[in-house]
Automatic annotation (TrEMBL):
SUPFAM superfamilies, per the entry: Concanavalin A-like lectins/glucanases, PHP domain-like
Organism encoding this protein: Zemynaea arenosa
Protein name: Carbohydrate-binding protein CenC
Superkingdom of the organism of origin: Bacteria
Pfam name, any one: Big_7
Region (Disordered): 235-254
Keywords: Signal
Signal peptide limits: 1-29
Taxonomic path: Bacteria, Pseudomonadati, Pseudomonadota, Betaproteobacteria, Burkholderiales
Residue stretches of biased makeup (Polar residues): 241-251
InterPro entries, per the entry: ConA-like_dom_sf (IPR013320), Ig-like_fold (IPR013783), Pol/histidinol_Pase-like (IPR016195)
Amino acid sequence: MQALCTPRTRRTLVCLAILTAFASAPARAAETDHREFEATLHAPYKGDASQQEARTFTLRFAYPHLAQPQSIAWTLEVVAPNGAVVKSWDGKRLLSGKAVEVSVRWNGRDGDRPLDDGIYKVRMSATAHELVPIRAGGIDEEPVTETQEWDIQVGQVAAPDMPAFAPLAVAGEALPPWPPHGTAGTPVSTAGVQASSAPQGQVQMSGVARSVAATASLPYTVYYGNLHSQTNHSDGGGALSSCTGAQNPQSAALGPTDAFTYARGKGLDFLMASEHNHMYDGSDSTNTSASPATAKSLYQSGLSAASTFNAGHPDFLGIYGLEWGVISNGGHMNIFNSSELLGWEYNSSNQLLADTFTAKSDYAALYTLMRQRGWIGQFNHPSTSGQFLVNGVPLGYTADGDQAMVMCEVLNTSAFSTNTTETETSRSSYEGACRKALEAGYHIAFSTDQDNHCANWGASYTNRTAVLIPTGQALTTANFMDALKARRVFATMDKTSQLIFTANGHVMGERFANSGSLSLAANFASTSGKTASTVEIYEGVPGRNGTVTLLASTATATVTPANGEHFYYAKITQNDGNILWSAPVWVSQGAGSGDTSAPTVSASVSGTSTLTFAANASDNVGVTKVEFYVDGALKGTDTSAPYSMTLASTALANGTHSLTAKAYDAAGNNATSAPASFSVNNTTGATQLIVNGGFESGTSSWTATSGVITNDTSNAPHGGSYYAWLDGYGAAHTDSVYQQMTIPSTATTATLGFWLKVISDETTTTTVYDTLKVQVRNSSNTVLATLATYSNLNKGSTWAQKTFDLSAYKGQTIRVYFLGVEGSSVATSFLLDDISVTAQ
């Protein structure tokens, strides 16, 4: 097997998967995989109204799947703003099965002395110890410590000055045209915008539960939802009347459609059913009699349920995907957009109980697979130690992981809560682990979810993950995933509040180059009358693996960063104690010459059936790239003048459209052109039969071999971000990609078109080693015709358009089939993009 892993191998995951599969015995998931000590602290932000600053703290301890009873040693401290401990408690509790709670009453004083007004911290540390160590072949449980820390307010604290900020529109509302003022291409700062006559930093609305669009709002709509829950496809879906914990896999009554219906009825805009990947065999360990076909069919049924629900409810997005991994020597993570069931379990016939093998706890290999497939994920309830190990390092960084992982849960409510009034008090914070991931180099945004296992999806508390989608774009899976990839997300414990963090006009989630000063602003809005009690701006260095530091305790700050890489994010605590976290911005600071001049850019459109988008762009230093957007959706990028791209008119609906071009310079300055209006009118009755011809929706509508449809940045696609990459392994290999369609019997013409680029390390000019065949096959996969054969002899540095007549297949159901065969030890890659079949 080692021979397959040659120095020329491009996709190293293939080698890793082969070697892992042969080197390891099938793994088993068992209860020991899911032992996790859980310790939460509820600290009321303000004291009891009738007893000055007195309040009760609640500590809750649980430890699922205990091997034997545990002794829980805990300490609790109240810490003053200067770091001094003003009050402490400690104790022990026995934990044997059910969760236990400890109530600690505090009189709000330091002994007999009243405390000075201010923001204090309540800090809990809890350690689980075995009562008697297990020997003689048993399992020793190492002591496990969990910490939690929450701010509380003592006395009266002056509210911070906040920028006036009008909230962004939320689902179901629209914004006025963008930009509202200023010249085209000039970022419009939110700081200083007058929202209304309401108090600074918020918008008050009598009798209205959702925010009103403001004249100077950013061009995004906010969607609130929950990205972590289970149904009866794994260990969730338990009826509220009897749910006390995780369900036996696939035993509960309620499935994905029930979850989507419930969440929509509770006012959520989206919900993810994140099912445990190793429970599709109907077991929490390994069911050796399970059928691979049944497991894989269940996963596909979940994808279908989400698609069907979304088609009938365009105001809501149901998402179906995986919660991959185990707890012990692992770590749970969501994969949002996997079209495949991933797993490591085999039945007694040595059949994989999944579509694709992924080794348990091998996060580096999983990240590589996710990057190749274009899948994105979230670190779920992460720990600072013992989880997401790469080369033995917790939350260890890989470049593939950085592309694949887009979010980190900063807070979770109780997974087994049955609360339906949004008043759950048991919740855990994971900000320390998310900070560790940021310092490791991960570009992740914060999220907050509920991990519902009972049938109260999204209803246990008011916390939400908030996602920003460009106004005017529909709430679709593709647009939602694009927003997650852009890290346009904030986490909030209050579904009526917003936190939009900006840096020199760049919106949270962005990465940009900067020279000179950097102006940061935490913009806050509440539609329920809440105000900011504290605001903090944090700074860190990606890849430093150090400590995130507090930069400012004000809503705005202007700094000149040291040269190098930085990230910044904002955190706001409301006057009711609920917290919001922004996504970071990532800044590459250079000495530069202080260039703050944005490029100038204009856009134009020409052509009818084939549209040519062109841009004239210039800059005082130099333009680095131009992006082309149609109706706000990215269609392509060009990095060299003259800046242009082409697009088939059939890829757009008939009617009027708007083209804008966005130009960037080396300092990160950017400008967007004035819109150029154009019309599409395919009056000849042209019908586009290929769906997702540019692959921008990933594998949707296509059938392809593993890893073919990708957004791998090693190559530039013809348009957009995705393309099909066949072969390129430098070893004997076969790849294919096809789509099935019916050519109308009434068509007068039918034309296949696609763009092809051949990249080869072969030096011969006479011998064919590697081939790509363009074929027409029937629905039984019989070859009806080979339209063309391309090879390593066709290699080149540019994309070339190819067209073929399919009129002979009118009235037939056919497959447009691309077959790549690599037969030598030298790599040849066949790249395909923007495939169309047009019938007239």
